[in-house]
Amino acid sequence: QKYGLIFAVATQPFYDCRHTACGTQHKVRANMSSDQPLSIAIIGAGIAGVTLAIALSGHNPNIHLTLFESRLRFSEISAGVGLGPNAVKAMDLISPKITEAYNTVKTANLWPEKAEVLYDIRYGDGPKAGNMISEMKSEKGFVPCSASRAQFLAKLIDLLPETVGVKFGKRVIDVEGDDEDEPGKTRVRFEDGTEVHVDAVIGCDGIRSACRRILLGEDDRGANAVYSGKYAYRKVVDMSKAIQAVGPEVQNRQVYLGQGGHILTCPIRNGKSLNMVAFKDAKGTPWKQRQWVIPSSRDMLLRDFKGWGEKSIKLLELIEDPEKWALFDLIPARTYVKGNFCILGDAAHASTP
């Protein structure tokens, strides 16, 4: 329904919808005068925001689109992203160009006989550590792949039309509908003291979304992400070093399962790199740090996985200067739209990896 709202704002002069979650009627107004094109502010220039800009500009090139990013440049974490069959189909429906961009950076399992295997599930600890538990296969011939998030975003940026504006260093602090200065417009205010007046605002600013808090209200139980009770160590390492450490099996997607944790690996960058994430249960310890990502050490990492099998430990030893990532989740929001303001992507429905 939120996607329908976005495209309704982009293509219709007036649109009514009944949001099933909150049971309220939303009226969306759009300025469709011939001398002033519809203006939309997209908050966040990550994968979701850039994809949305490509999609909307493709459906209606007359829309005036601007991406507002809080950081000083386009950026993504050094990690992998994998898309399932439904996501790939949705991506193709949005724009075949986006699918083509993903195809240029995606990496499948490197062994042909493992092409349709989602993961080899292995014991991570105990007397059978390293042995196979099961081979989890995909359905209907789907070939699971992973990609570098940074490489995928770079390809998406190349697809942005020149008509799409991009402004960096813009951290949103407020979104107000029914602007007094410009009736029918929505005002967006930024931390640097600037503001814009647009017809619609779409928040794509991730799991720590300011747009979500503004839309729902600071006191709403669904406004902020909640700690999942788990954390993870992430790293991209050289594939040749990983093969030397544990053998060629690591050229295919692996999951090592153990007591209170698991280690996930997948090839990226055409098999030249290995994306690795080691998940750990915090055993009820709350996350008290303000930052969600904090520096750690190899000693602390190995201490967390003490007693695990030889292969698991050898993989973890490849991680230099590890960072500890708190894993947060979002409870379902009572609504994802308010007037001409809505949220999308992780800002709307983020979950743990």
Structure write-up:
The protein is globular. It contains ten helices and 22 strands. A hairpin with a 6-residue loop joins β1 and β2 (25-29). α4 (96-105) runs antiparallel to α5 (149-159). It starts with a helix and ends with a helix. The chain is an alpha+beta fold and 353 residues long. Strands 8-7-16-17-18-15-20-19 form an eight-stranded mixed sheet. The protein has a six-stranded mixed sheet with strand order 10-4-3-14-22-21, with helices on both faces. It folds into two domains: 2-78 and 150-225 and 332-349, FAD/NAD(P)-binding domain; 227-329, D-Amino Acid Oxidase, Chain A, domain 2, CATH 3.30.9.
Provide the structure class. Answer: alpha+beta
Question: What is the level 1 CATH name of the largest domain?
Answer: Alpha Beta
Average pLDDT number: 88
Helical fraction equals: 10-25%
Tell me the strand percentage band: 25-35%
CATH architecture name of the largest domain: 3-Layer(bba) Sandwich
Beta strand count: 22
Number of separate helices: 10
Poorly predicted residue ranges:
1-34
Shape: globular
